[in-house]
Amino acid sequence: MATIAPGPTTTTTASLTRTGIVDCDVHVYPRGNDEIKSRLSMPWRDRYGGGGRGFFGNPVHGSRLDSNPPNGGPVGSDPDFLRKQLIDEYGIAYAVLLPRAFCNLHPDPDFGTAIAAAFNDWLAETWLSEYNPDGVFKGSITVNTQDPVAAVKEIERWAGHPHVVQVMTDSGARAPFGQRQYHPIYEACERHGFRFAIHPGTDGMGINVQPSPGYPTHYIEWHTCLSLAFQAHLVSLLTEGVFVRFPGLGVTLTEGGVSWLPALMWRLDAEWKSLRSEVPWLDKPPSAYLRDHVRLSSQPIETPDNPKHLLAMLDLLDAEHVLMFASDYPHWDFDSPTHAFPRLPETLHRRIFGETAREWYGLE
Amino acid sequence: MATIAPGPTTTTTASLTRTGIVDCDVHVYPRGNDEIKSRLSMPWRDRYGGGGRGFFGNPVHGSRLDSNPPNGGPVGSDPDFLRKQLIDEYGIAYAVLLPRAFCNLHPDPDFGTAIAAAFNDWLAETWLSEYNPDGVFKGSITVNTQDPVAAVKEIERWAGHPHVVQVMTDSGARAPFGQRQYHPIYEACERHGFRFAIHPGTDGMGINVQPSPGYPTHYIEWHTCLSLAFQAHLVSLLTEGVFVRFPGLGVTLTEGGVSWLPALMWRLDAEWKSLRSEVPWLDKPPSAYLRDHVRLSSQPIETPDNPKHLLAMLDLLDAEHVLMFASDYPHWDFDSPTHAFPRLPETLHRRIFGETAREWYGLE
Hints:
The first copy, chain A, is an alpha/beta fold. Chain A contains 13 helices and seven strands. Chain A has helices spanning about 35, 45, 80-90, 110-130, 150-155, 185-190, 220-240, 240-245, 260-275, 285-295, 305-315, 320, 345-360; strands at about 95, 135-140, 165-170, 195-200, 250-255, 295, 325. The first copy, chain A, has a seven-stranded parallel β-sheet.
């Protein structure tokens, strides 16, 4: 055996020697996070959330500072205040609600499915009925995409509900959304007339893969690149031929950015021209399926320094047909209906701020 | 013990019973791939490459069909033919060479580093000397980014070489390229005046993570989305402050697409406005660092149906400052200097087809 240097010499206050058991694995804990936070310098003191919480939160604030309901409760939980701050303030005719259940990151698919069902029951009993006398709220039910069979059952539970307009999932996944295991979900959406919405979230969390070349370092990097994973899901949906198999299916891409669309479609259409033998079910360019089967919600709309650049981009991406306004209330990067966009041509404004969404969701 | 159904009844030609050992794991092999290929229907027969090769190859063809040298040898291996088909055909003054070593996917970093060095020696002894009497060829040496310390040593081996202009890597990685472990490589590039080039490849191969939400299904999906991983690397380089730490560093983004740039920079600049406390080393918008420190090579330039759309996009992405022509000879999606672009304004044409690259690489 090699010679190992002696360990440190320790003493105790009680005596210099002790008899009895030596236990080599004992955990002690601070009485609270403050015992650690007070020993961290800024900005880490502000950001530290306690043991085991390694993942990203917005380091500034996740919601509008003015969106806390005056009578208490979390942001977005008070229907009267939401009506005052959003519906009445801007004259919203319909608000499509997307609760955030974060159900598809659990190792146990039954747990994820149960969370989805609980959120859907809650949504239906509150925002879609009790809080909804005038029908301004239209709902998205959540499904756990990790268990497609259970997701289909959940979709069937809401078939025919007067205020459910779509089925939603977070973008976090272990496989791109065009792949076969998800097809029963699309079949159920098509059969019951629900749009299928993808919303950023749970990427790289829990059991989901991190959809980038290794783990990002900062929230700004993670949040910027959410939009890239979104694009990968779209390419998967298009190339796998989901819209050929389910011609009545419509996919809503929510909160994933907008201006990337022309570059991605130009690239994919060019690849299709050379490689269409690999995806023979696509008998027209992928972008043609997009125009028929996909809509993007606008927030966070990109804001180049020169507003004319955004207008040029809206033209390149055929915004008149594919773009629908969204505010992302009450999040920190809320887009105001009156300020988020530069002045738009009359027709384009009408399409983005209502007409396309009314057609898409069958609203009057 | 539960009752298990009896197994299948088998017979042998020799006798109905046998004594002796039963061996439960024996492998037999076809005499060649054709024994399997002949039993596959099309298109799988064309694509099947034998056991263990599960990864993507271009299902059509990876190189121009006319690029096979008439005197034999692989595409791109005959200097006389390459001069005839590319240099002389189009009046190329300088061709920046990017060999394809695929070294950064090996589990053993010493193996990857050895492959890089062998490629660099080969390049220097052939294309940069014997084949290069007129200096038309400028070289990119390859480094294995999985071992940054060894990569620095490799870079130092080529310091001062008259025809080496940059250090290159494939985009496949286990961590985005802005992260700390790579910084010694950037310090060495800065110190020796080499540009650092990233080229698509080895994504999701060998030890590298698949930089998308799970594994793509088809080559068209994989190839389209290479451009997304590229963008994630760029966001990492910018947000980690690599260009603040190494103000003399220049990064060339090669063959990763072009038209995604405005959308990505608009999004990242907007995030920076809200989240700059997280990346306090960036004292100007990320896009400003891009303009000073990053150049994109043009192939595969996007080709919208309407050429005016590409001109609009080139304007949005400040092509006059950041874009440099590349052909990607001899690959299947080669961009011809005379046909790939629509007619460009005089200044823009001059910048893209030479001026920017001459400045970037210090060429006369």
